[in-house]
Amino acid sequence: MVTRNFCLFLISAPIASGSVDASVREQRLTSRHSVERALGSGACGSCAEEEGSEIVGVEERREGSLESCEREPRVMATLDVARSEIAFLVMYLNKAEARDKICRAIQYGSKFISAGEPGVAQQVDKTTSLARKVFRLAKTLNELNALLAPPPKATPLPIVLLGKAKNALVGTFLFLDQIVWAGRTGIYKDTERLNLISRISLFCWLAGTCCTTLVEVAEITRLGSTTKKVENELKKAQGSPSIEEMKLREQRKENLKKSRVRSLNLIKSGMDIVVAVGLLQLAPKTITPRVTGGLGFITSVISCYQLVPPPPVKAKEV
Q1: Cα separation, 22 vs 18, whole angstroms
Q2: What's the pLDDT tens digit per position in 189-248?
Q3: CA torsion, points 57, 63, 65, 68, in degrees to nearest 10?
Q4: CA 302, CA 73: separation in Å to the nearest integer?
Q5: What does UniProt give as the signal peptide span (predicted)?
Q6: 275, 299 contact by CB (below 8 A)
């Protein structure tokens, strides 16, 4: 009897004192249980409760450590996603063109809401229109650079001339628009001449947009004929895997991609023609301020979408 109590005391003493870690406690508890069985008597009620509480505590600590280990990677992954999204927005908003198109969407959205009636929406329309003119300072140089640049090889002469006419007209619109901005801010005082310059600039934008529409129609037609030729050559080369067939497939894929971009530009330029007619009030009964605002908002959203940078290309695994 004395020997059994002494053995139990030696095993249970470190567990009660808490001087060892969880793994050692578990080993001691197992040893204690084996000693009791060897001595031929079951543990008493208090010892059984003590043993059960110790094992439960060890298991709870293990589960808690596992949950914390699983939670940390999830939190880090969420933070990485948030950082990448914020970096993407910063990169997008750093473009002056993107900010201009966002302001344009606000401007024409306000015009759609106001429908030409005085109020807060009309005031937002006017102030945003004036603010946008600052984004277009010296933007005439972009059109001048495109006007002086040599055209791509194998481009038909009519398309080249339409493109150069578009650059000249849009460049003139941007230049005259700066004079309009000077008049709206009070730098230029001649109101009558300012109204005339404003209408001339809008007519230049209308003509330039018409040239853009014609260019897009011609380019889509060219891409369609080129794609048909590629498909015919691909049918002839089908069944014999070769580098030539792969090149034809890539060329067809590239042509289809360009055709989609051109089609979106065609839709946008067609709507912008209606917007220009609405701003000039050439058909006030048909093209109301609400129609002008709605179409202008749609073309602004399309422009914002076109300015979104493409996703990064993943490197192919070797």
Answers
A1: 9
A2: 888 899 999 999 999 999 999 999 999 999 999 999 988 888 888 777 776 667 777 888
A3: -140
A4: 38
A5: 1-18
A6: yes
Q: Quick one: tokens of 287?
A: 């093209």
Tokens describing residue 90 = 């910063």
Its pTM stands at 0.72
Give CA–CA dist 169/167, Å, rounded: 6
Place of tokens 């941007």: 174
Q: How many CA atoms lie within 13 A of 20 on its CB side?
A: 15
Q: Check the CA dihedral 113-116-117-120 and report its sign.
A: positive
Least confident of 55-64, 73-82, 140-149, 260-269: 55-64
State the pLDDT at residue 71: 63
Cβ contact 51:32 at 8 Å: yes
The per-residue DSSP string of 67-112 comes to HHHHHHHHHHHHHHHHHHHHHHHHHHHT-HHHHHHHHHHHHHHHHH
